[in-house]
Amino acid sequence: MTRRRLLVPLSAAAIGLAGALAATVVLHAAARDAVDHIIHERLAGAGESTASLLAGVSPTAERLRDVMRANQLDGAYVVSGALRVVADATGTPGRRADLLRLDLDRWRRALAGAAGVGPGYALGGLTVLSGYFPMRSSTGAVESVLVLEAGQLFLATRARISRALVLGIALSVLSGLGLALAAARWTRAERERGRAAAEAARADGLARLAAMAAHEIRNPLGVIRGTIDLMRERSSAALGERDRAALADIVTEVERLRQLTQDLLDLSSDRPLSLAATNVSDVLDEAGRAVEASFPDIRVRREGADLPAIEADAARLRQVFANLLVNAAQAQRAGEIAVRARATAADVRVVVADQGPGIPEGAEGRLFDLYFTTKSGGTGLGLAIARRIVDRHGGFLEYRRNQPRGALFEIGLPRVQSRTVDREGE
Fold this sequence. Notes:
Shape: rod-shaped
Number of strands: 12
Largest sheet: 5 strands, antiparallel
Distance between the termini: 44 Å
CATH class of the largest domain: Alpha Beta
Helix content: 40-55%
Structural class: alpha+beta
Strand content: 15-25%
CATH superfamily of the largest domain: PAS domain
CATH architecture of the largest domain: 2-Layer Sandwich
Radius of gyration: 47 Å
């Protein structure tokens, strides 16, 4: 479908370019023929009138120069039947005619009484147009030939026509390139719109599936958790250490599944935020303690002074910080995770930096895409949901490569929410 859409504008561009080029060439040919006809007629008229005026009169250089100026010619001279120059507007008479400059066939025909006009010799990149006209004596006999040469001035119109052809072809090519560029941009935009529509449809379908799965899983999880709590209450004295540890493991897995269902619900719909004055330092400490409990070899080191309270949804922020810290702990496995926090007049900034292997090359651009993950067994939900939560608070969540190794995530949260943030119950 995309190729077919691409062929339509490209075909239109090619047809438009071909049509423009064809029209330019045809118009040039017609204009050139018309100009050539006019030039030939003009030179023929000048030669015939000059030969008639000089009939029976001895030609002189001055008279030939007058003819040159009047008709914008490049040369005018008279050649006798013995190939001697009788008179020359720009040269010395009496010399033998230059055979490289003279067209002997036209000269002979002119001596026989037939005038002729046609291309003469080439001078640089210019072909001189020559006319040969019989010169009659007082008795009417043809004794010499008048030769007129039309060069740059006389042929200026033809040169302009040639330049117009080059300009027309250039404009046609530019128009074709413009059409091709417009077609390429249109095709790219169509491809992007199609991809966005497909992604939106896929996301909508997955969101519906996620919502259904979350609702179907939550009820059994509640039953399992309630049963475990009841077993602990009724049989705590009879349970051995291994049994209590096994129940604790089950509770941990139940909580993990409960968090997954919460992520699925966040994915399926943007639930309204429950905004209230929130101590970000307390939220960070809670998330840090939870990660340290889950990862015994990890320590969360918080740097910076206590942060001011901001207007936020504390539970959602805890989910964001917990997600980033869990990712850092899974990447680092052991050691310290640095959490640096500071406040500005407008917002609160929190940086989570680990010393793990970092994000693979080429993955940074898709890091926050839904379902994209670099971890084996990952769901690709955590960072996407975390950014959505931060965005809905009017803040930002960005990734930067840590130096010399590891990953660094920075969160910015406004201290006061704007009116556009959706609140619970509104």
